[in-house]
Amino acid sequence: MTSSGAFADATGRTLEGASHQPRYRRYQFDLISPHCGRSVLEVGAGLGEFATQFRSLRRLVLTDVDPGAVEMMSRTFADRPEVEVRQFDVGAKLELGEPVESVVAINVLEHIDDDAGALRSLAGLIEPGGSIVAWVPGYQQLYGEFDRKVGHVRRYTPATLADAVRRAELDLELVKPVNLLGGIAWWLAVRKGGAGTPNPKLVSVYDRFVVPVTRAIERVVRPPFGQSVLCVARKPLHADD
After folding, report:
1. Helix (H, G, I), strand (E, B) or coil at 36
2. Which of 205, 128, 203 has the alpha carbon at shortest distance from 169?
3. Which residue, 19, 82, 105, 141, has fewest beta-carbon neighbours within 10 Å?
4. Could you tell me the pTM of the whole model?
5. Percent of the chain at pLDDT above 90?
6. In which element (H, E) is residue 122 found?
7. What contacts 24+ positions apart, CB below 8 Å, involve 152-161?
8. H or E stretch including 29?
């Protein structure tokens, strides 16, 4: 994957193709943001659609490997003085000046062969005691043509993601499946239906009707399975960079 065109390669979307999933983005944000400090680095931020929801941070650093995505984020966040936009590939060196309290990585680790090495590298960018919040595709049973097309090395279970965290010598705070109904819908569409790309009309229907039900279910029941896996890892307080 080259840096130019990386966004399209990794997501199946074009830079001009807006993602109309406001309820899903909010669902992600409500699960991820409680684990973030006042300074946040988001790696693989794409067009910044998730990051626009952060509104009270001291510092927000947004990165992507695709220069076109970086340019679009620079325009989107031009009026936000707390936001810095950089081109960055996970595993390369990123000069932050001072470490951040939290790193957010949404749908990033599944593209990287050495996921533990990537987590270890990201840990070098956060303060001791800081968090890495990872959101990754869940369960190899859901792996299909779309995963192959966008370069997914793997899908995760809570156990395999926890293993990557431990191999990176980080402390595991939380790991759990999320988006139960999304996982069922993905299995029907991709594994049984053979869909190679998400259908925009079905994605819109899912966002409008299924996400609210998913949120209601997961407030009272911990799902045994899901389309994604959420993980929170902590850099040990005694860690030396």
Report:
1. coil
2. 128
3. 141
4. 0.92
5. 78
6. helix 115-123
7. 152/110, 152/111, 153/110, 153/111, 153/112, 153/113, 153/115, 154/110, 155/110, 156/109, 156/110, 156/229, 157/229, 158/229, 158/231, 161/109, 161/134, 161/136, 161/229, 161/231
8. helix 22-32
